[in-house]
Amino acid sequence: MQKLLYCDPFVEILFEQPTGIIEIGWLPPSTYMCDDTCRKIFLTYAQLAERYRPWACLVYSKGSMYIIPPEVRHWVARNIFPRTYQAGVRVLAVVASDDIFTQLAVEQMLDENPFEDYHSRFFTSYEAARAWLMHQPVSGRSSCFLTSESLPS
Q1: Residue 132: CB partners within 8 Å, gap ≥ 6?
Q2: What's the pTM?
Q3: How big is the chain by its Cα radius of gyration, in Å?
Q4: What whole-number distance in Å separates Cα of residue 148 and Cα of residue 128?
């Protein structure tokens, strides 16, 4: 079951403990948000990743047409990717926006990720993105949601 961690007019962030997947759902009003609001949302995501330690992130941006400007993309690469990587995020599935310019901006931002063992892929549907995440090797997953009780003796 997914737990709603954060919600505002622009985004919903959810976490599913059994799978260790955090989801970011960009809402249609995010098309009109300012760059500072975008940065604040990314900071919130980083804080939540540090707290819940997901191994994967699913981004649903189908309803958004916010184009991430270059200075925000560079800022995310310097300030957010290192924090979420250290928290355990190694895999990212993106359900792409219908707007080609929005999708291109996200692709350019991901190209700035400095970590070689960070894997990302774009999808046209939520179902395909989630299925891909669920088929990623267990070795790529963080052990944050495993406890000594859940390990074999």
Answers
A1: 93, 121, 123
A2: 0.83
A3: 15
A4: 32
